[in-house]
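Limitations
The structure tokens in this dataset are predictions for the assembled complex, not deposited experimental models. Users should treat interface geometry with appropriate caution, especially where small molecules or nucleic acid strands are included. An illustrative entry is reproduced here so readers can see what is and is not provided.
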Amino acid sequence: MSKVRVHELAKGLNLQSKELINIISGLGVEVKSHMSILEGKDLETVIGHFRKMENKKNENIKNESSKEEKKVDKSEKLEDKKNNFKDNKNFNKDKKEGFNRDNKPFNKDRKEGFNKDNRNSNRDSKDGFNKDNRNFNKDKKEGFNRDNRPFNKDRKEGFNKDNRNSNRDSKDGFNKDNRNFNKDKKEGFNRDNKPFNKDKKPGFNKDNKNFNKDGRNSKDGFNKDRNFGKDKKDFGRKFDDRKKDFLDDVVEVVDPAIEKRDARKTHLQGQEKNKKNKSLNEHKMREDRNPNLILKPAKKKNKANHKTKSDSDLEFESKVENVGEIKIPESITVKDFSESLGVNSAQVISKLIALGIMAGLNQEIDFDCASLIAEEFGKTVVLETPEITDENEILSLDYEDKAEDLVTRPPVVTVMGHVDHGKTSLLDYIRKSKVTSQEAGGITQHIGAYTVNINSNKIVFLDTPGHEAFTAMRSRGAKVTDISILVVAADDGVMPQTIEAINHSKAAGVPIIVAINKIDKDGANPERVKTELADNGLLPEDWGGDVITMPVSAKTGEGIDDLLEMVLMVAEVEELKANPNRMAIGTVIEAQLDKGRGPVATILVQKGTLNSGDMVISGTSTGRIRAMFDDKGKKIKKASPSMPAVILGLSEVPEAGSFIYAVKDEKTARGYAQRIINVQKENMIASGNKVSLDDLFNKIQDGNLKEIKIIVKTDVRGTVDAVKNSLEKLSNEEVKVNIIHGAVGGINESDVMLAAASNAIIIGFNVRPSQGAIDLSRHENVDVRTYRVIYDAIEDIKLAVKGMLAPTFVEEVIGRAEVRATFKVPGIGTVAGVYVLNGKVTRNAKVRLLRDGIILHEGEISSLKRFKDDAKELLTGYEGGLGIANYNDLKESDIIEVYIDKEVER
Ligand SMILES: Nc1nc2c(ncn2[C@@H]2O[C@H](COP(=O)(O)OP(=O)(O)OP(=O)(O)O)[C@@H](O)[C@H]2O)c(=O)[nH]1
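Predicted assembly:
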């Protein structure tokens, strides 16, 4: 093999592309993505690595085969694997050895626990490998958790997240700052799991690194940088001797994130066993020191055991208390995380790479990973517990599944792009070529989502119109889309709605695959499209970036199979999984009232399996599923994760984007519905929690707002950048001003949805919102501000940040009229024949002339007539003649916005 793409090699090795990328990076070979090509020396290095590993494994297996009958089997299998590997197939087909998603081994038996930082001991670490010292153990006695941090289900041997271990008799103690946690401690572990010894008898250096250079062969298997000695006389051996005691007596120190984990139950059981043996005073002291550490078990205080705090303890305590804690959510983008830490994102990315995690700016990292990185910068992060503000949380019907219960589910894809770039054609082509014929019934109805089969893999397409649906759902807290396909016409290039779509996907943290469409056309220029994509922050893979671009034709079908392959590959990298064996949770994609059938809802099952006959609840709508159909209109009994289904039986039409939950019985459903009604009432009273310029100051003061997100719409391109620059400069230590989207054009519904989903404010310069945007902004409580001069906007935001925004007059739009015809009246100028779309037009109001959402003129009404008579006002649905003072450029379809300046009390 002289050349191979990463994903092909991964397939051959039966690894996830992401896992393989991590391994390859660990070998010092640079790969950008699963599409990167490996060849020459790089390929040799990678193949060599896997051969070596296989050989090593086999050797070990052979060595042990005499000891255990069972292992004979295993080595045979490994031998098979080796052979398979030679054929570049099924390297790890039977997965006797586990690797978690980050290519870090796991162990399902989990007999020995490991700490979160992957700095593990591994008794049998002969098999240990990988650059970050994440040990592989063929005996699988050691467990590893989802993030490649080994853990211990049985928690017989426990290590806490931060390696803050203690020991009943305090012989093995440690503390974060290498200060003596317990003066009796003979051996300790510091925060980085580097053993230390106060008396330095076994001889550790200050950083406790490399105690024994050869330690990598240690039976205790500490990592290569922080080894215990091979020499059994040294600390390593003492540790070995005492290991059992130490582990029996281990005290669990978990943070809230860890506590949430699956192993909770067993963990607590383990604690119960160890309870009597714990040094309770130590627990208490640690708890005192860092309230974010929940020490277990320390429920009962043993006064007799309480020791007086020594000076060094107190010193330690005060230092710990002084450490600034940063609150972050369960999952956070690298960008946001860097900002929270107050460090450059490049530094964070390089630390992540050092941990074997390839993450871009907008990629999300979980809390555990973030806390590791924070430590590297000497900071402590704590889990932000969000306030319960929405219905879904109140229902509390969702819970995290155990990793072992999760199975791969099909990806859910949304197609987005500029008007006429071929979204519908692409979806139609896929649907026609990939569905129908073999499937009974064909497509009988439009249900907003459908499934296609690609080489026995499924892909679910959301057939809702573009990103509106996508953000509408997100604003209600639902994340339905896993991958977005961005359609860009090769003859037209990146257009305003393309940029909108990019920003929507980025805001939702959804990976983008670009379909460069219409390549069959004469004017097609895919390279130009790539340049424009790069200009807009999407660097194509073949240009060294990580965005997959695929030339396609929705007309001829060229490239579409490859595009779908790419979708499956991205899905694989994303590791989309769900537990099918639980009560179902899904999201309502579409819903309407059908005359004959009552409320009909298309839902997408996201967790669990929905059954016909299940009792469900969505918002205030409840009911037993009377009948259920798939996307081909076929009656079905069950719908598993990622499956779209149409359900009948709800009491009322649920809102698109709402969650739907299966519950155990009608009483439960009614109970929840009532609770939701109550919450909705409260929320109404609280008038939403969306940010507006008026309450900005209070939110900043309350510490509820660290970032002001703004969407900027302007009449000309140059203004977008000017406004962006000026506004971003307003960021200060307390709040950051972040322009999440900037574009030319009127304020549309899509902008409002993005604002609602992202909790942003919309600012328009010389542009106005469409009627739909106005209605939606009212419904969604989105603050839309329009200005004629940049200076005014900057001033407003400045004042808002200081809490001094207090204008006494605000403008109130009282109506809108459409120009249906124009007349030239000698001596007066052009008069418009108008139709009042909504509200009213009053003679003394001010008007604004809009064309495509852009303000062409602001002024006063010079004449208002109903038929031939002067009129004081024209109401909705009426026609009349309207003249604008000193203005004649009126055209059919122009919109006349009518407004008054109104005094308001603040
Ligand atoms: N030659 C060629 N024409 C295409 C291709 N894809 C779409 N078209 C044509 O482009 C036009 C617009 O395609 P649509 O699929 O309606 O585009 P859309 O993005 O769904 O448009 P909206 O729904 O209006 O946003 C239609 O006339 C299609 O026939 C293609 O690959 N090649």
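Some entries come with short summary sentences. For this one: The first strand starts at residue 3 and ends at 5.
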